[in-house]
Amino acid sequence: MMNQDQTGTMRKIHIFDTTLRDGEQAPGATLTPEQKIVIAKQLAKLGVDVIEPGFPISSPGDFAAVQQIAREVAGVEICGFARAMKEDIDAAVRAIQDAERKRLHLFISSSSIHLDFQLRKSREQVIGIARQMVAYAKQFVDRIEFSPMDATRTGDEFLFEMIEAVIEEGATIINIPDTVGYALPEEYGAMFTRVMKNVRGGQQVQYSAHCHNDLGLAVANSLAAIQAGVSQVEVTVNGVGERAGNCSMEELVMALETRKAAIGAETSIRPEHIFDTSQLVSRAMSFPIAFNKPIVGRNAFQHEAGIHQDGLLKNRSTYEIMDPERLGIPRSMIILGKHSGRHAIKHRVSQFGVELNEEQMESFYAAFKSLADRQKVVHDHQLLELVGHTVNQVLEPYTLVSVQLITGNAGHRVASCTIRNEATGEEAVYVGTGNGPVEAVVAGIKQGLPFEAEFADLELYSLSAGEEASGEAIVTIRAYGKTYRGIAENRDILMAAAHAYMAACNQAAREWVKASKGGSVEPLEVEITIP
């Protein structure tokens, strides 16, 4: 293992982000030029060292996006991607010519299976092309990155020969990709060691790792490469990319951050922007994030087991090796279900400003366990209802009593929303319109609230299959300068969205009421299930 350098300081690992190039090559992940520009600016804010914004020769739109990013995104190196062909290189040079800092990234296949069946060229021909194109590119930029595609299935002899050739012609960064996600960590790290030791000129260049995740080893392989001396890793946000994707940026970065002392390396990534960047890419590509995805998945920092919940409430580090709030992730670590203990349940109830005496707690706990035995999770609206029955009061500020919706394939949608103000007991009907049904319902609900609740985001999930399938809606709103999330389930997905929005608004309203009385309360996730 290669830890700290000889001066005792941490080695810097440069983060090369290819979300906008290799990540966008995932089926269905295509981005508009406008989306690429927004994401590129967020990546710069995140602190990546290099952005590969696209493949300029592939389309006029991609060329325009790369060109605009090169002109507008400062403080980060912009890399133009090109096959080892003059027309590709010319397009990439034109696209990045206005960048503050720039490089070219050239690639050509190196494995026998690629040469025989894809390129249909001999090894001598491929070496000649690689030499000529690196020399051609060198006249435009000083920093040339070269990738022998499918390097892990190439074999040392030809791999060494190709790398030596491009170094002689001026390549400054050698990227050795595991193009098909085939390598094992010990194999991948050892390959870099052999290249650095045996290639002439191999000590004069920077090395980069580029791993795909076909066997789920992209992050492990990238870490092995770092331990072998690599100083750059190519990643994508959320691990998006061809087939099973690329090395996940957030997983690699947090592995380095969490095990910094053991690995002896660090990055310039600003962790507080990881979650927002992940959400931005997920929404732009319409790629949902798996619930159990490390770092940014919905369950990554949530705990249901009573033993875990008790430990967390006493000291977070008992069951969490990272602080989610440091990553910009909303704190919602306690999920209440049949495995939850009294300590966690009492803590959640107290967060709503309610203290139960011993007798009330016994009655409430029995009702909670009965409900928890019938369903997977006890959502906050149900918790509030149980508490309300226990203390004989209504705890939610507003109730969405009913929604009537007129929709169709033409014209505006119209929603009639009945809302009850629980403080006064008064019910009123509010009518909203919109181009879509969700927009119409939200417009109606907004009229019944005494504060502005901006509808920020909507996520929809199918929870089951068949005619009786239900859906889950997660709505994010902004109010009072903070963000709130409401979650609802319903067989009618529009009603799930409506109740999720109402849940988020109630969360904001509860905080406003408590603040107006001189107190404060941390934002909670409100989850509701409508029968």
UniProtKB/TrEMBL annotation:
A Pfam match: HCS_D2
Top-level class of the enzyme under EC nomenclature: transferase
GO molecular function: 2-isopropylmalate synthase activity; metal ion binding
Keywords, alphabetical: Amino-acid biosynthesis, Branched-chain amino acid biosynthesis, Leucine biosynthesis, Manganese, Metal-binding, Transferase
CDD domains, sorted: DRE_TIM_IPMS
A biological process term (GO) from this entry: L-leucine biosynthetic process
This protein's pathway: Amino-acid biosynthesis; L-leucine biosynthesis; L-leucine from 3-methyl-2-oxobutanoate: step 1/4
EC number(s) per entry: 2.3.3.13
Entry's family note: Belongs to the alpha-IPM synthase/homocitrate synthase family. LeuA type 1 subfamily.
Family matches, as NCBIfam families: leuA_bact, PRK00915.1-3
Stored PANTHER family: 2-ISOPROPYLMALATE SYNTHASE 1, CHLOROPLASTIC-RELATED (PTHR10277:SF9), HOMOCITRATE SYNTHASE-RELATED (PTHR10277)
Name of the protein: 2-isopropylmalate synthase
Organism expressing this protein natively: Paenibacillus naphthalenovorans
Lineage summary: Bacteria, Bacillati, Bacillota, Bacilli, Bacillales
